[in-house]
Automatic annotation (TrEMBL):
Catalyzes the oxidation of 5,10-methylenetetrahydrofolate to 5,10-methenyltetrahydrofolate and then the hydrolysis of 5,10-methenyltetrahydrofolate to 10-formyltetrahydrofolate. It holds the Pfam family THF_DHG_CYH_C. Keywords: Amino-acid biosynthesis, Histidine biosynthesis, Hydrolase, Methionine biosynthesis, Multifunctional enzyme, NADP, One-carbon metabolism, Oxidoreductase, Purine biosynthesis. Residues 134-274 form the Tetrahydrofolate dehydrogenase/cyclohydrolase NAD(P)-binding domain. The keyword Metal-binding does not apply. InterPro entries: Aminoacid_DH-like_N_sf, NAD(P)-bd_dom_sf, THF_DH/CycHdrlase, THF_DH/CycHdrlase_cat_dom, THF_DH/CycHdrlase_CS, THF_DH/CycHdrlase_NAD-bd_dom. GO terms for cellular component: cytosol. One of its GO terms (molecular function) is methenyltetrahydrofolate cyclohydrolase activity. It comes from Deinococcus cellulosilyticus (strain DSM 18568 / NBRC 106333 / KACC 11606 / 5516J-15). The gene is folD. Residues 6-115 form the Tetrahydrofolate dehydrogenase/cyclohydrolase catalytic domain. Belongs to the tetrahydrofolate dehydrogenase/cyclohydrolase family. This is Bifunctional protein FolD. Homodimer.
Length: 276
């Protein structure tokens, strides 16, 4: 079993980001907005900020109170949309319930939408047009490329249909000529479907979703889950799957670092496209 570690692949994405950044006459500036003190959000936003500092990207965190009004948040985004000193804008999800997350996403300039969540970027992704790509799906592709896992003609089964992972990953895998199936909570006889997969992606957000009997001998398993259980970070895949799979991403240390590295690259790409 090959352990598909994220670190080396993330390093290569970051090198790419730095190289492109050096060609720019200014330093790209990422703005991350966080509402409230949800511990997971605090920790993820810190990871992003730290990685940006590490590679010499400018990064500003905007920490607003949990009870910030939607209007105030939209006003901040307006200001950043108009600012020449903001190349990437990321509003950390999930947002408090009194805020309409979709409205916030649609308010962000698609040129600065480094999450790739704006409908314009989503539409372009499905049309095969150049767009800012969602960080986790794009990071997953970069991880496959780094480990020379080819996608053309492969049967890919994605378990999970979220707007941030499952759906955009299906579009990206399709653009690489994979045969893609998206399974979800209402899928009938899930193991029958997952057993077909040459490449199985778990993106559900529930520990223990994928067990060895659901995995074809020799399949590549990509675990996108980030679940905290008794203070420990675990994926969606049970540890015993390593006895069946030919390759498996660890959690932590697999897809997570790819997400952060892709965000850095997206910020540089966004800056390039805003150059005028
Ligand atoms: N607007 C928005 N964009 C996001 O991209 C976004 C978001 N909201 N909300 C939450 C999710 C989650 N997410 C992760 C990023 C990095 C790791 C990561 O680096 N994980 C490390 C370990 C982290 C740890 O130890 O806590 C790893 O897996 O090795 C995980 C998860 C981005 N998200």
């Amino acid at each position: 079993m090959i352990e598909l570690k994220g670190a080396p692949a993330a390093e290569s994405l970051l090198r790419q980001a730095v190289q492109r950044m050096e060609q720019l006459p200014f330093v790209p500036h990422l703005h991350v907005i966080r509402l409230g003190e949800d511990p997971a959000s605090v920790s993820y936003v810190r990871l992003k900020d730290r990685k940006a500092q590490e590679i010499g990207l400018r990064s500003t965190m905007h920490v607003l109170p949990e009870d910030t009004s939607e209007a105030a948040l939209l006003a901040l985004i307006d200001r950043l949309n108009a600012s020449e000193d903001a190349h990437g804008i990321l509003v950390q999800l999930p947002l408090p319930k009194h805020i309409n997350a979709q409205k916030v996403i649609e308010h962000t300039s698609p040129l600065k939408d480094v999450d790739g969540f704006h409908p314009e970027n989503v539409g372009k992704l499905w049309l095969g047009q150049e767009a800012l790509l969602p960080c986790t799906p794009a990071g997953i592709l970069a991880l496959c490329d780094h480990h020379q896992i080819s996608l053309a003609g492969k049967k890919v089964v994605i378990v999970g249909r979220s707007n941030i992972v499952g759906k955009p990953l299906a579009a990206l895998m399709l653009s690489r000529d994979a045969t893609v199936t998206v399974a979800h909570s209402r899928t009938v006889n899930l193991p029958e479907i997952t057993l077909q997969a040459d490449i199985l992606v778990a993106a559900v957000g529930r520990p223990g979703t994928i067990t060895p009997v659901m995995v074809k001998e020799g399949a590549v398993v990509l675990d996108v889950g980030v679940n905290r259980v008794d203070g420990k970070l675990v994926g969606d895949v049970t540890p015993e799957v390593r006895n069946v799979a030919s390759a498996l991403t660890p959690v932590p240390g697999g897809i997570g670092p790819m997400t952060v590295a892709q965000l850095m690259l997206n910020t540089v790409l966004a800056a390039e496209r805003q150059r005028g």
